[in-house]
Design goal:
578 residues, alpha+beta, ADP-ribosylglycohydrolase fold, 20 helices, 14% strand
Length: 578
């Protein structure tokens, strides 16, 4: 039985981050050709979502997307079925029926015979179990060999560290729910490579491992061998030349359907071979090369995240701060929709240990939702600067120490704060008003902060010079209003014991823990996709004196700990320093 690597959790976290970065990078120009990308955007070296001079698919960085939702929702089949090592396609098909909200979540709902996943879902719904639901015999070769099976493989690989056999098996069973033929071969090859990347960092050897799970007669094997041959014969290391050869032999014009797996698989192999072991260069190639840019960059980003770790991601530009670990998993499990890379890492790591038959390590900081245990993790926290007259910029950094229950914390720093201004940092507990119009993939979600919930926060303050510092928790909410109506609401969260000590920190150092209970905040903008003119309201929380575990809507133990925290209900929640 394969043993779990000592740095397993952090490598999974890096893989999850790589997946998010790749999807967010490629999503705005998904489906564009190489020629159009160069003509309208130029070479892709960083996020382009904020370009307003180009007709992009989206201008938000963090969006709902099938690559993310499916990748992290479907491995829930493991926990739901008691972590069987031989999880079946039929069981994963039942997971589809449990978590997919028809014509709303996870997939592109393009109709039967057009969207592969929509077709398979309707088969499952009608009583046809997997793997028949995705078979060529039932759906035809064109529908069955589109790209979807490949884009969802990362979760199965990350629960199989150093175990490519298990990863290939799980990816195959998951793929057969909706796909067949070459799509399944591609899924198995990539899943095996990613699983082996926990213990091997040479791309050529990883490819050889992946090919071990693909039949000698498959087209996918021939694609890989052709790209490897072209790369080996390219003395000038010119990836554009090899891309042109791919387009000539395996381009979109050679395959039927909306997004066939073969051309895109070829571009993934291209980027892996020419990326020079660099996360930055590999993402540049796979994104600039075109076609299904978010899917391809997501798979490549995950593999390189696992292989090179956090240091590999951090070696180039700052990919991580704009993302801040944020992600959405739009599904029937509304309480798990507003999530982050740290939370999803824990879920995958638990599955990995269970499948390996090893004891599961305790959750960081006794199950705190925000524990900041991985270097650089922010868990959605950012400085709020929406009102420059009132809000003072804060600097956020993940730092070692400063926690009684863990190794790392979130530091929130500010300087020269004028009277009457505040420095705020917060993490979303619901999507903001820009989330109401998410392109292509709808959001189905419940807030993670709600009236009556208890929030516990561990804080430590350093004051270099000056007087006392005042800190308070707050929640920022928005209401669902009809056009022409006005609404205003302000509530104060009471202390559970006493209100003394509003000034809670003095130099040089003070450490304390506070616990507050949220009041009824009235009607929330919530689970509906249409609102008119969301308005922001702040709810300030005075800090209490006790600390105790609480439960979130899904019944899990929840703590909020760090060196400054902010939470959200239908909007945001956080920590305010005065």
């Amino acid at each position: 039985m394969t043993s779990i690597p000592h740095d397993y959790a952090e490598r999974v976290y890096a893989g999850v981050l790589g997946k998010l970065i790749g999807v967010y990078l490629g999503r705005p120009f998904e489906g564009w050709t190489y020629e159009r990308i160069l003509r309208e955007l130029g070479p892709i070296n960083y996020y382009v979502h904020d370009r307003r001079d180009v007709a992009l698919r989206n201008h938000q960085l963090v969006v709902t997307d099938d690559d993310i939702a499916g990748t992290f929702a479907f491995p829930r089949a493991l926990a739901d079925n008691g972590y069987p090592r031989q999880l079946t396609a039929e069981q994963i098909g039942q997971t589809w029926l449990n978590y997919v909200v028809e014509e709303r979540s996870i997939f592109w709902w393009g109709g039967i015979g057009n969207s592969t996943e929509h077709t398979a879902y309707l088969r499952l719904k009608s009583g046809i179990p997997a793997p028949c639901s995705g078979s060529i015999a039932l759906n035809g070769k064109t529908v069955a060999e589109q790209i979807g099976a490949q884009i969802f493989i990362d979760g199965w690989a990350m629960v199989s560290p150093g175990n490519p056999e298990q990863a290939a098996y799980l990816a195959e069973q998951a793929a057969l729910v909706s796909h067949d033929g070459e799509a399944v071969h591609a899924a198995k090859l990539l899943a095996a490579m990613e699983a082996q990347a926990f213990v091997e960092d040479d791309v050529q050897r990883l490819l050889q491992v992946g090919l071990g799970f693909v039949s000698k007669e498959s087209l996918i094997r021939r694609v890989v061998e052709d790209v490897r041959d072209w790369h080996a014969g390219d003395n000038e290391h010119d990836w554009q030349r090899t891309r042109a050869l791919i387009a000539e032999r395996y381009g979109y014009d050679k395959f039927a359907g909306n997004c066939h797996v073969v051309p895109n698989h070829a571009l993934i192999i291209l980027a892996l071979l020419y990326g020079q072991n660099s996360f930055q260069e590999t993402m540049h190639i796979v994104s600039t090369a075109g076609w299904d840019t978010d899917c391809n960059a997501g798979n490549v980003g995950c593999l390189f995240g696992i292989k090179n770790g956090l240091s590999g991601i951090d070696a180039g530009p700052d990919w991580r701060t704009p993302v801040a670990d944020r992600m959405y998993i739009s599904s029937a499990d509304g309480g798990g929709a507003i999530t982050d890379a740290v939370i999803e890492t824990r879920s995958l790591v638990v599955s990995g240990y269970r499948l390996a038959g090893e004891p599961v390590p305790a959750a960081p900081k006794e199950g705190a939702r925000f524990h900041f245990s991985f270097p650089g993790s922010l868990q959605g926290f950012s400085s709020e600067t929406s009102s420059s007259a009132h809000l003072h910029p804060a600097m956020l950094e993940n730092v070692p120490g400063h926690s009684r229950r863990g190794a790392r914390s979130l530091a929130i720093a500010f300087r020269h704060l004028a009277p009457g201004r505040v420095a705020r940092a917060a993490s979303p507990t619901f999507f903001g008003k820009d989330g109401l119009g998410m392109p292509t993939y709808q959001m189905v979600a419940c807030p993670t902060l709600y009236s009556g919930q208890t929030v516990s926060c561990g804080l430590e303050v350093h004051v270099a010079k000056g007087g006392p510092v005042t800190a308070r928790l707050y929640a920022s909410v928005f209401s669902r209003l009809r056009p022409g109506l006005a609404d205003s609401r302000h509530g104060r969260i009471p202390d559970l014991r006493h209100r003394s000590g509003d000034r809670v920190a003095r130099s040089p150092r003070s450490r304390w823990h506070r616990l507050s209970r949220l009041p009824a905040l009235g009607r929330r903008a919530g689970h509906h996709a249409a609102t008119a003119g969301p308005r922001q309201h702040d709810v300030e929380a005075r800090l209490g004196q006790r600390r105790q575990p609480v439960s979130d809507p899904m019944g899990r133990a929840t703590r909020v700990e760090g060196r400054g925290c902010r939470l959200h209900r239908a909007g945001h929640a956080g920590l305010e320093g005065l």
